[in-house]
Predict the structure.
Amino acid sequence: MSCPYHSEPAAPRGEGIVATEGAQLDFAGDMSYGDYLQLDAVLNAQKPLSPDHNEMLFIVQHQTSELWMKLMLHELRAAVAAIGRDELPPAFKMLARVSKIMEQLVHAWDVLATMTPPEYSAIRPYLGHSSGFQSWQYRCIEFSLGNKNAAMLKPHAHRPDLLAIVDTAWRAPGLYDEALRLIARRGILVPASHLERDWTLPYSPSEEVQQAWLTVYRDPSAHWDLYQLGEELTDLEDAFRLWRFRHLTTVERVIGFKRGTGGTGGISYLRQMLDTVLFPEIWRLRTEL
């Protein structure tokens, strides 16, 4: 059949549109979409060990979460450095992005929750002692947010390259530490004990630090960027709490109260994590306002 307006045959639906747009179709000598994204490596990284259909879900969910955590670390490290340089506008953008990444991680549990207990039981023997508890990226995120614990270095002792990365995060001041240093540079009193301390120890709340934040929150117009920083930190911890809670409920739904593959108490361990407060004074000050 011929097109009434042209002498050549009519192209199949959609094909002519591609041609008129000038889309490149030959990639024999040029970089393609798959080349740029290294899709051969990414899409061939799923190696199920069991014959069960559902293991692919388990692998993809955890691999994609690790990719999001890679981006989260990229943004967190840059935000901490920007705050240290008093460059708050880019830091705000980075922290807002981290909060959005956390939203993605929260919703990832919705997909994993479609795995039923019998389905998980079919693949569990193939996991050995591997567990998300051992994720070095997650540990760096926890350390960057101030939840320091020297025992969490041990799962990485068999990999000196990864241990060095986690150890660096453990020894460095975290996001909240840099925020407090910034407040002090702005002339608001912050105790010396919270400006120069042993960064390998978990953060301890301080009444003086709470008063410093109250100075900011009681007069936002005079301290607008510090006020905004406080709210960015609040957003981030809010999202992180949701992620932890969704993790807990998904694990309980799928495995109940069994011990984790990595040796933790499973649900009991995750419940303890719910009680961890990363930026305590920012939450406590709301009662006094």
In short: The mean pLDDT is 90.
